[in-house]
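User: Here's a structure from my thesis project, written as structure tokens. My advisor, Dr. K., wants to see whether a designed sequence matches the one we expressed. Can you design one independently, without my sequence as a hint?
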């Protein structure tokens, strides 16, 4: 784990909380883009939920659970109680991946049609114990996404058309930095920060994909 960061996993949500505010880059439905936040939430919703008010759904859970704000919020149809946590570190950079995996709607980006419905998702929350510059967070998000595609390929995940899947129809990613230590400019896979992110995400996804396949047999 990373000092000053707690993770709670349950059937309602995954909750990642920092003692001090994170700097976050995310594709989240609530407070997405660049933001500062005390918490990142990955809230479970039913696969057939209309999600007409995603921010309201996330806010309602956060207030009920007394999560310190502000918070970045993701939604998922995947079983949050099966979230996987993996931490890796190298050369003074540490990364923790907290991943939920649902593969009911795999897609091949660039081939699959526009999705008219949603299902379970792959949501990636990555915390880096570093003072990562904005560009490094973008770079780290790219690294995590590249790893996701490779993990799905190696797991043999196919679309309904038999193509190798690159993700699901509603995936999300959040990269959060603690702001501690020296400034970090790069987050690609050849950099120390990117290496730690890639290793943590790959470890979490390999286990998450395998366990989802076992549960779905």
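Assistant: Designed independently from the structure alone:
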């Amino acid at each position: 784990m990373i000092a000053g960061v707690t993770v709670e996993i349950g059937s309602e949500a995954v909750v990642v909380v920092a003692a001090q505010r994170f700097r976050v880059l995310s594709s989240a439905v609530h407070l997405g883009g660049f933001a500062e936040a005390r918490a990142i939430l990955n809230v479970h919703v039913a696969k057939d939920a209309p999600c007409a008010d995603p921010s309201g759904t996330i806010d309602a859970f956060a207030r009920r659970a007394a999560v310190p704000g502000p918070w970045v919020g993701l939604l998922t149809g995947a079983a949050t109680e099966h979230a996987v946590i993996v931490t890796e570190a190298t050369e003074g950079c540490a990364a923790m991946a907290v991943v939920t995996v649902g593969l009911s709607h795999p897609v091949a980006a660039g081939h699959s049609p526009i999705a008219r419905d949603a299902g379970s998702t792959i949501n990636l929350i990555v915390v880096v114990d570093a003072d990562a510059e904005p560009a490094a967070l973008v770079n780290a998000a790219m690294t995590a996404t590249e790893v996701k595609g490779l993990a799905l390929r190696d797991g043999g995940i196919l679309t309904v058309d038999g193509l190798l899947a690159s993700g699901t129809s509603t995936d999300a990613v959040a990269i959060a930095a603690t702001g501690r230590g020296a400034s970090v400019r790069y987050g690609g896979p050849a950099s120390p920060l990117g290496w730690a992110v890639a290793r943590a995400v790959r470890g979490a996804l390999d286990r998450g994909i395998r366990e989802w396949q076992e549960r779905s047999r």
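When you compare it with your expressed construct, this may help: The chain is about 25% helix and 35% strand.
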